[in-house]
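Reply to dn_fold:

You asked what the input looked like. This is it:
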Amino acid sequence: MTELGEELKLSQYWPVRKPRPYAQKLGVTEPLITGLRVIDVFFPLSKGGTAAIPGGFGTGKTMTQHSVAKWCDADLIIYIGCGERGNEMTEVLTEFPEIIDPRTGRSLMERTILIANTSNMPVAAREVSLYSGITLAEYYRDMGLAVAIMADSTSRWAEALRELSGRMEEMPAEEGFPAYLPTRLAEFYERAGRVISLDNKEGSVSVIGAVSPPGGDFSEPVTQHTKRFIRCFWALDRDLANARHYPAIGWIDSYSEYADEVKDWWERQNPEWVSIRQKALDLLKTEQRLQQIVRLIGPDALPDPERLVLIVSDMIKNGFLQQNSYDKIDSYCAAEKQIMILSLIMKFYERTLALIKAGAPLGQISALKCREEIVRVKSVVPNDQLDQIRELDSRMENEIGDLERTYRKVEL
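and this is what came back:
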């Protein structure tokens, strides 16, 4: 009994469709570090933010969510298996207890809650599973914890909603979904956020929802309505997935509206984060345009500065964006290492572009030993030995400097 005569119980009851109250909603300022470079640097998600991972069958939605759940710096993970195959939940149950949490040194399962609602379970239970997960997240948020929710997948939840609506003989809307589908999606995603709880503790709920559009069609209703209510969009690319490029998050269709909010945090890691990130994204967009020309007339028709764009873009793709989830070093990349690798690649581009303008042939630049070393940094240098990257930076400066002095003599 409390001083007010209220009886305290070990169990607490709350209607899952009703958001738990809080004292104040705060702005988002700190990124949710996932260890995936394409997410953390290019398309960051903040603590208290919302993100969607849309992609067709086999593009890696579940794999990406598993990786985020394993390595993100949230205090608690809630994984909702909504209408997915039973073997995927089995994989989580078998893998997570064996993974050592890098923050505590204990099993990752100790900070993970699984809500299993596989495709062979009742439709009504599937429809309510998302609300159960978000209510549990709010319960721990009120304790002052940073909670991350993985909802896999909201498309299966929407299909359950459609089936229940049909059984109740409600008027169907687009593609048979009920007319209130956007409202339900909004109610779910709007429960994310960073707040001050009623007992003056700061906590957050970050929501990452997988979307499974039929045939990978992003114009279908669930994907389109989801885009209205989330601020971070990690679009999975079929071509990247087929090329075994993991994670298969496409850098052309993806976006994040949290980049400005988390800018101050990243600038404490590297003051040039904003410019480095934007230059790299612009370079990849230029490369996509050049690839259309290459497919028509071949790379030899391009001038050397544009062929250098193709070379450096490959360095970004293979040495920065692509990660090996089975590699002990590359499966998780610390924030400081992430920006150091991208900074090194962009520095290589700027220095070699100046060389080409001075008359150096592209063949000698592509033959530089440091180029291959930069691509291998991700899997060679551990997160706690970043001095090796600084040493590589010095070696790169020496190699480029030697070539630069050669062509200065030629000019003289």
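The chain has a mean pLDDT of 91.
Hope that clears it up.
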